[in-house]
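USER: My hope is that you can spare some time for a protein that puzzles me. I am handing you a single protein, as its sequence and its fold in token form. Walk me, if you will, through where the backbone shape changes along the chain. The protein I mean follows directly.
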Amino acid sequence: MNFRKAERKKAKLRLAIAGPAGSGKTYSALLIAQGLSPNSKIALIDTEHGSGELYSSLAGYDVATLPPPFSPERYITLIREAEQAGYDVLIIDSLSHAWEGEGGCLELHDRATAASRSGNSYTAWREVTPQHNALVEAMLQSPCHIIATM
């Protein structure tokens, strides 16, 4: 390994906005997305039954509705589609479903536990963790700014 002089490089935003229902997460995400660049091309993944379109008068953005199941793989597919379409900012509203929603990681874990011979819930994570890690990696490696609500 070799050391080299550190250089400041352009970085993409990776932001999570957490709060209870109705606290303004989506609204805030859209304002932040607009603030990144006035001409940003913004996409929003909506898992909230169409609520992502409530703010269409606030900003210009495109929306993709993600119905259940909320598997990490389906999120990754939409992230890749946003990248290929040339979006600058991707809002994931809400990332919580990938963990605790129908078809999310917790449900995948329960299924893996039930399907195992031992019924060992600890070892069932070996089937789910790679899927969750792939979703995290897709967000970290994306050329888009990513804002996720939770």
Summary: The CA atoms of residues 17 and 24 lie 9 Å apart. The chain has a mean pLDDT of 94. The two ends are 39 Å apart (CA to CA). The longest helix spans residues 121-141.
